[in-house]
Each structure stands twice: as structure tokens, then as C-alpha cells.
Amino acid sequence: MKDNMTAEKMMEYLYGLPNQFVECLKAEFTFMGNYKKRYKNIVVSGLGGSAIGGDILRSYAENKGNIPVIVNRSYEIPNFVDEKTLFFAVSYSGNTEETLSAYEKAKNKRADIICITSGGKLSLMAESDGYGVVKVPSGLVPRAAIGYLFCPMALILSELGIFPNLKSEIEETVQVLSELREEIKPDIVFPDNPARRLAESLMDSIPVIWGSIGGTETAALRFKAQINENAKSPAYYNVFPELNHNEVVGFAVPEDILSRVVIVIFEDKYDNPRIKKRIDITEDIVKNRVKNLLRIESRGESFLARLFSLIYLGDYASVYLAGRYSINPTPVGVIDYLKARLSEG
Amino acid sequence: MKDNMTAEKMMEYLYGLPNQFVECLKAEFTFMGNYKKRYKNIVVSGLGGSAIGGDILRSYAENKGNIPVIVNRSYEIPNFVDEKTLFFAVSYSGNTEETLSAYEKAKNKRADIICITSGGKLSLMAESDGYGVVKVPSGLVPRAAIGYLFCPMALILSELGIFPNLKSEIEETVQVLSELREEIKPDIVFPDNPARRLAESLMDSIPVIWGSIGGTETAALRFKAQINENAKSPAYYNVFPELNHNEVVGFAVPEDILSRVVIVIFEDKYDNPRIKKRIDITEDIVKNRVKNLLRIESRGESFLARLFSLIYLGDYASVYLAGRYSINPTPVGVIDYLKARLSEG
Question: Is the ipTM of this complex over 0.95?
């Protein structure tokens, strides 16, 4: 089947995601002795696939943490960063210019920096400056390396006692993803699976992905970005309950555009009951104004497992969608072009 | 002209925005003596038009502050909230259920709470509990009260010495908005103005509003929400440079949908030069794939003035857009319906 052939590389990466978690669980972070401070805040500095792990930690911290996690998608750093900040500089390639800039500024502010990267300039600078570096395997595309880019931060924070339960949540996530991948991997004999069906629903539409604050929101953001990067097509996202205060009104006109919208709601058994009620009512309000509305429930028990169950389904669906468009999901020529233009004089 | 008649109320509110700032500048916050603590963080808890002021403060804090500002659009509160948190509970009506819930939880965590509201349950609870209440004029719709909902927080933080320059920035903002409103108010004799032209460009399209991190991002989010609430139509937003890592790839397919997209880029003379370069390159990449791409520059000198110059233009444009759709921008029946359904058993 043509879509399996062009998507082969990305499918291989996806199938390997639980293995990324397993490898990280075995890793030793030899620099931990330098990071025993009582931190005031945590900053995760990165872009795209290197930043999404920061959103997962931010969400987790808002739920169960004692200090804030701030995600920094910028050349700059928040002005409040200082020596009481634990600063993760995350760049899969090690050459992301925004993150290299932020690293320098964090160093000037004397933050405690840990780098997560497969190499590049970031690795060289950090080793030279004496900071902890988690060197992850190279050879993937950044968005496929979500396990390698997220788990080390989670395990470090677990080991430091800042978020002690993260390690066991990662262990459960391995289980949930290992089950899920058998259900959604490409199978020529049994071509129907939940990810493929989701992709089919999104074809030739305007995908709008909705999650819940403190719950599925990061999976919704991730799916939006994966549709952009893998299926090379537009997608948008928002979060309950905020969307009930503005976006839900925007379904009157123009009708021909609304008739192309497909809404995907990521939901979760542990959502606040008021949020669940909002989802039900919002579905009633908008379903007849749009092409389709789908509700997809997470699986698993811990926060991380539930979140990653949705991330994984969305990741696979975005690759199937690329296949339906006869697009190779793996290369992102536009981003390469942009980087080349940026490095010109 | 029909669109002026249906939009009359909202146009009146908009014209009055600089006056909201002036009134706030004259206000005295008699409770300040209770809030002299050295805070670890600031939380702004609210939804929709009551939350956007929090985003402005968050952006400002990342630039110039010494402590983080976290915006909380939820029933819950971040777990790290404690007695060293300055907690703003913002609800124009005073009856926003998420914010009432968050207020209770913040009270249990012994945060220092200040409420910004025109009345309702929040006002009664806060007065009874002995917290500071800023009672703003009632009678507007929340999104039109952005001056009343933002300025008191800014002035309080200015007076407390946390963000000392905010007061003078508000003063410059009054000037800039006062000039701008003469250029963009409805005028039957001279019907052409920048806000009306912007509205015209967005008609029957998929508006996608892009801002820059630490710069125009909040104005982009605001404009997206105002198109939803005033023009009752869909709109989406994103931020440079993050969008260069995913959204910029999503312009290959489907062509018939992309041909309806109108991109509006909010830019600013003080944007990082790398961001300016990214905007130029991104325009080159996407402009031939979409219906139209507009670049709109802020005016003014201080951060607040520049941000509000764009907010104001977008606010007016969203009301003109409602007029072009023959829609009355002021009522939001969908939100009233949602609230009624939520309060059923």
C-alpha cells in the first residue's frame, strides 16, 4: 500500500516510542550531585517537538507540584530566572538557535542548567561549561523523539524528589503504549484501526482539536502540531473551559467554512465533572454547524499514561493522514528551507 | 448604515476604552496595606475577557519582572499556590463558576487574594472574607471592559513596587488609544479606516492571527477571541517563533481550504531582529498558498501602548466584521445558553 511505503520511516519511529521510555528508565544521570538545590522554579526552554515535554511537565506541576514549571519558546528567557532556577535547555539537534540563545542568557543569570540533546552546539557548549548533558540517540526527527526528550527531565525531577511519582507513571505509560501500538500499527491484512479511522475523518477538513485544562490539553496541542508537520496541513486547537468563553460563539458564520470543520475532543475519565458537562453541552451546540465532531477518550490510570495514550493515537493518525494525502510525513522541507534562509547574512 | 446601528452599543464601549484607563488611574486601592508581602509568584485566575489582562501581565513579567505571573483559566488552582502567592481573582460579572471555585481553593491555601469584579458572588464572598475588592463599573459586556479588568491589577503591582513602570505605561497607552480612536471610529462621511479595511479582508475567510513571543502575542490571542465573540465566526492564532517549528509546514494541503485562509501578522518595531527575519521569510513561504497575508504594525513606545494599539485595532475590526455579516456583535446568546444549561441539575 502506497501510504505505508512513504510513511515507513515515521511508522518505525512511532512503533519504537515505548522503547524510548524503556531506554530512558535505564539511564543514569551522573551529574545529579550538582543539582541538589532547593529550586524556586523550573524553566523548560525549547521549540516544537523539544518543547512539548515542557508542557507535559507544566501541566503535571500545576496538578501535583510545589513549584511552577514555565515553558520558554523563545530566544529570550524570563527575567525572573536566577540561580534558584532549574533550567532545562532542550534541543534535539543541539543547534536550535532560539535555545542556544536562551542557554547563554540562562548561563549569565547563573541558573542551574541541564541540557537534553543528541549533540550539536548545545552539547559542546554545555560540556565545556560544566553543565549536565543528557545525550540522547541521534538519527530521528525531533518530533519522533518525544520519549527521549521528555523522559530524562521527568526522571531527573523524580530523582531530585521534586515530582517523585513521575518514574512510576512513566513505567505505566510503557505498558499502555505497548498495548496501544499493537492496535494501531499499520497492518495490511486488517487495515482498520482507531488511528486510521481518525485520519479518515480529518481528510479534506479543517481539524480543530480540543482538550481540557490540566488534563488532555497537551495531547491536543501535540496532535495539532503533528497534523501540521506530518500531514503538512492546517489544524488548530483550544482548551476547555476557556473555549466556552469565546471560541464556542464562533459557529454562526461563514457557513461554508464551518461545514468543513471537524472537531476532535480529547477527553479523560478524570476530567472535572463540570468540564465533562461542558463537553456534552458544547457538543450539542456546535455539532450541527460542523462537518463532524469526534470524542476520543484516553486510556490508562496515571496522568502520564492517559496523556500519552492520546498523544500516541494522534501521532499515528497524523501519519495515516499524510498517507491519505499521498505525502511523505517524515521530511519537513519547509523547516529546512527556513533554517537555510535564516542562516544567510 | 445598518452595520453601525446594530453595532452601536459595542462601538460606544470601544470608544470609551481610553476613559476606562483614565478612571482606573484615579482610583485608590484602600486595601493596599494588607498586601505588603514579598511574593514568590502572582496568579491571575479568570476566563475569557477577564483572563486576557493576566496574559498581558505574564508577558510583561517575562520581560521585566522578578517573579513569575501564571494565568489560571480553570476551576482548579496551581498546586504551588500558597501564602506567598498574590492571587488575583478576576470575573467581570462576579459569577464565573470557574473563578468562584478557584477563589475558594486559593483561600484554603491562604493566598493573598485581590478580586477584580463589578459585583456578583465574588464581591460578596471577598468582602465577607476580608479580601481587597476592586469594584469596577457594571453594565458593559466583559470583553468590552478590558481596561477596567486589566488596569487595576497593573496599578496595584505598580504601587506595590513589583512592576513599578506599569503606571507610566498606562498613561502613554491613554494617549495612543485616544489618537487611534479618532482614526477608526465609525464615520459615515469618511467610511474608510484601518479597522474597517482589516474587517473587509477577513470576510468569508479563515482568519489566522500570528503574534510574536514576548511582543504582540497577547494582541493576537485577543483578536482571535474578539472575532469569535463579536463576529460570531471562527478564527485561530499562533506565535513566532514556535509556529516556525510546526504550523508553517501545514500549508501543502488541502488547497481549497488553504485558499480561504487570511493570515494577519501583528508586528512591532521592538521585535527581536531574528523574529523580524522569521516574519519576512515566513511571509515568502506561505503567501502564495493562502487568500491573503496582512502585516500590521503596532504604534507607541512603551510595551503596553504598543500592545493596546493592536488590541484596539483588532477590537474595532471584529465589530466591523460583525457588521459586514449583518450580525449584532454585542449579545453572546451561545454563552448565555451554555450557562443556563450548566446551571441545570
Answer: yes
